[in-house]
Amino acid sequence: MNTVARAVLGGALGRHRGRLALSVLAIALGVALGFAVALVNASAVGEFEGAMKTLSGAADLEVRGPRAGFDENVYPLVARDADVAVASPVVEVDARIEGRDEAMRIYGVDAFRAGAITPALVPTARDALDVLRPGNVFVTPAAASWLGVDEGDTLRVQAGMQGIALSVAGLAEASTGERYALMDIAAVQDLFSRRGVVSRIDLRVRPGASPGAVRARIASLLPPGVSVAPPQESAATTARMSRAYRVNLNVLALVALFTGALLVFTTQALSVVRRRAYFALLRTLGMTRGALARWLVLEGALAGCAGAVLGIAGGYAIAYVVLRVVGADLGAGYFRGVAPRVVVDPVAACVFAAAGVAVAALGSLAPAREATRAQPAAALKSGDEQEAFARLRSPWPGLAMLAAGAAMTMLPPVVGLPVFGYASIGLLLVGTLLLLPRIASVALSRIHGGHSLPAALAIAQLRGAPGQAGVSLATIVASVSLMVSMAIMVASFRQSLDDWLVRVLPADAYLRAGSAGDTAFLTPAQQRAIASVPGIARIAFLRVQNVLLDPTRPRVALLARDLPEHDPGSALPLVGDPYILRNGDPPPAWVSEALADFMHLQPGARIDIPVGSATRTFVVAGVWRDYARQQGAIVIARPTYVAMTGDDNATDVAIWLAQDTTAAQLRERIEAALPDAARLALATPGEIRELSLRIFDRTFAVTYALLAVAIVIGLMGLSSSFGSLVLARRREFGMLRHLGMTRRQIAAMLATEGLVVSTIGLAIGLTLGFAMSVILVHVVNRQSFHWGMELHMPWMSLAALTAVLLVAAVVTTVASARQAMGGDVVRAVREDW
Amino acid sequence: MIELRSVAKSFAGPRPRVVFANVTLSVAAGEMVAILGESGAGKSTLLNIVAGLDYADAGSVSVAGQDLAPLDDDALTLLRRRHVGFVFQAFHVLPYLTVSQNVAVPLALLAHTGRESDERVASMLDAVGLGDRGASMPRELSGGELQRVAIARALVHRPSIVLADEPTGNLDPSSAAGVIELLRDRIRGEGASGMLVTHSRAAAALADRALTLTSEGLVESR
User: Fold this and answer.
1) A453 contacts in chain B (CB < 8 Å)
2) Please, is A801 exposed, middle or buried when counting C-beta atoms within 10 Å of its C-beta (0-12, 13-18, 19+)?
3) pTM
C-alpha cells in the first residue's frame, strides 16, 4: 500500500513541479527575510552591546548625567567612598570633523585611572607622556581608516566656532571595530569648553563589597539629573530605544513568512481539490484517513524543508549585503559608529528553518483535513469537488476573530511594545480570510454574466464552488491588505512628517553652529554679530541640551528657545488644548508627545527638570508633536534657561529675512561679519525638508523592500491558484471544445473568472488594508514610537497598485488559458484523471 | 450526412504507427452506426476526425454536406457547434450548472435564449425521462440519469450529426440498454446521423449497422 500510495501521490506531485517550486520559493523568501532581519538585529545589537562592554571595561557602576556633563566636584565625593576601589572620570564629546558633516566621539580620560577599569580607553603610546600632551589624539584603527589618517597626521575638529588641529599620536586599542578617539581629560575640558564638568565616572567596587549598597550610598550624594547604575543598564536603555524599530522589522519579516505559508495553503488546498479522485481511490483501496492526512502534511513539510534550506542561505546573503550597504541600523540611525559583521548563529538558523517547515506543514493541515473528510464514493463522482471546503462557509470563527481583533486595539502596550496591536492586525487578517467563502458567495450572487455565455459560465463556476473561490482569494487578499496597510501607514507618516516640517520651520533660514556633533556653539558676541547683519527682519536663538530625567530611560532633549512673548505655545505644533497659565504657576514647559506618553503628563501637570545644577519645577503648558527626537523633548523659554543656568550660548538660529534679502545674500553677509562663519551650517526650510524626507525614505527602505516581496508572493499566489484551477478543469474545457466553444471563448471565460476573483480580492484587500492601516497608525506606531500622525490616503499609489494587480491577474489567467488550450485538452475528455 | 472516403490516419513520433488506412463510410440521416474494434484501433480518433477535432492524413471527410479539409479551427468549431452533438463515456456534465442549464449550453452557444430555448430544453428533458429534474444539480443524479442529461444536451440544438463515444462505458447493463435505445430513438426522431463507438456487442446490436475498425479500414461486423 505504501508503495502504491507513494507512486500515486508522488507521481501526482512530480507532474506539478512548477507549483511545487512556487511553494518552495515562497517559503524560502519568508524564511530568508525573517532570518536576515534577525541576523542584522542580533549583529547590530550584539556589536553595540559589545562595544559598550568594551568601553565600560571592568566598571561595576557608572555615574551619568546630562550630555553636557555635570559638576566635576562629584568626582571626589564618589571616589572617597570606602568601597570604591577605582574611580575614573571621563569627558565625552562628539566633535565635528572639519570638512565633513560627521562627528566622532572623543573620550577625555585620566589615563592612569582608566587603565585600571577601562583598558579600551587607554591609548598605546610610544612615549608615555604623549598621552598627557594636550594636542595629542589617539584614534581607533576603524576611525583611522574612516578618516584616512595615520600616526603623525593632523586631525582638525570644530570646537565652538573654531577649528582645532589635533596631532594623531597613535592608535587606541579597540576590539570590535568602533570609531572613536582618546585624549587627555584636561585637554578635552579645555579645548571643548567643558571646564569643570565630566560626562561620566566609571567605578570599580572593592572586592567583597556589595555593588548594590555602594550604588545606594552614591546615589544619595548625587545632584539632580545625575544617577548611578551598572553600565549594562545604560547599554540596555540605549538598545531599548531601537527595540520598537527592530520588533517592527521582525514583524514585517514574519509577515513575509506568513504570506509564504498562505501560498503553500492555497497551493495545497487547490491541489487537494484537483486530486480528490486520487485520494478517493486510495481510500477505497484501504488507505486510512490518518495516513492520507500525514502524507499531505508531509508534502507541505517537504516543500517547507526545501524552502527553509534556501531561505537560510538567502538570509545570510541578504544580511551580509544589508550590513555592508545600508548599515547596522538599516538606515534608522540607532547604531551610528557601529560596524558589525554577520555573526554565524546556528540556533537562530535552526529556529527559522523550523519555522519555515512548521508554517508549510500548518498550511497543509487544513487541506489535509479537508481531503480526509470527503467520502470516497462521493469523491469519485464528478461534481463532488464543488463541496470542497464546505466547512469554511461557517462565518462564526471569522466573525469571532474580527470582534477579538477590534477589542484588542483598546489594550495598552506590553513592556513598551504594541503586542496587542500586532495581534489585532493578525486577527483581522485571519478572520477575514476565514470569511472569504461567505463574502465570495454574497459578492458573486450580485454579479451576472449578462448575455455572454463565457461570462455566464465563469460566474456560475465561481458561484458553484465558493469554498474554492475563497481559497483562491486568500493569497490575493492577504498580499493586497498587507501592501495597502503599509502603503497607507508610510504615506500617512510621510505626509504628517512633511506637514510637521512646514509647521516647525516657519523661518526663511536656519543656522547651526556646526553641521554635526555637540561641540559647536555661538557665544553671545557671535549671536550679536549675526543679529546685526542687514536684511534680517527677525531672529530667534536656540540652545539644545540633553538632560537625564529618568535613569532607566535615555536622555531627553531640552530646547531653550526664543518664543513669541504673546502666546509662546503658538510657535509649536501643539496637539490638543494648551494649558492657560495662572498667577503663581511655575514657568511653562512644553513636552513632546513621546515624553507625555512616557511620563503620563497632561497640560497643567507639574514636571521637575534638572536645569543647570538644580532641579526646577515647571508646569506643562502643552504637548507638541516632535518627529525628530524619539526619546522625548522639552521646550522652555530661553530667557528662563539663561536665568537658571547662566549659559547664554546658542547652538541654532532661526532667521526671518527682510523682503529684499535672499538666503545666499544672508550667508555672504554673515561670513563678512563673523570670522570662522564658514563652519556655520546654513539651510533653507526647503533643504531641511528635502533632507529629512530623504532620511525618512532611507529608514523605510527596508519596509518598501518587504512590501515588494509581499507583492511578488501575492502575484505568485495568484498565478499558482489560477494555474491549479485551470489544470483541474481540463476535461471541462475539452468538453466545451467538443460542444463548439472556441479557444477564444474559453480564454474569455477564464479571463472573466480571473477578473472577477481579482476584483473581489482587491476590494476586500483594500478595505481590510485600510482597517489595518488605522491600527498601524493609531495603535502600533503610537505605542512603538509615541508619534501621533494623521491618516493620509495615497490615492494615486493605491490606484496604480490596483491597476497593476488587475492587469497581472488577467495576464496570469490568459497565460493559464493558453496552457489549458494546449492540443491535449480535446483528448482530456477521455482521461480517467 | 456523414461521408468518409479513403480516410487514413497515422501518429508520428518516436514510435510512428498507422492507426487506420482507407476508411470509407456513409451514414444517412436517421441512421445509427456502431463502430467496434480492439483497444487502440482508433475508434475515438475516427470520431474526432468526423467532429473536426483532428485532421485526417488522407482521404476526404464531409459532414452535413461540408468538406472539412479547407476549414480552419474556428470554422470547424462553428460547424461542430451547429451540426454536431456529443455524448461522452464520462458524461462531462458541468457540475456547477443545473440539469436544465447543462442541456441549454449548446443553445446558448448558438445565441438561442429566451422562452423558445427554455421550451426546447424542457421538451428534451421530457424526451429523456428527466422532465421533473430540471432544477437538480448533477451531483444529485445517478450515472444513468447523467448520461440521459448528456444525451439531451447532445440533441437539444437539433444537430445533424450525433457522435457517442462509449456512452454506456460507465453504466450497468440495464441502464446501458436504455441509454442506447434512447439514443437510437432520438437520432431517428430528429433525423440525425449517428455514430456510436462501443466495446459492447450488446450495444452494437441495437444499432442499425455495426462495423469493426481495423488498420485496413471498416468491415461489417454482422
Assistant:
1) 105, 108-109
2) buried
3) 0.82
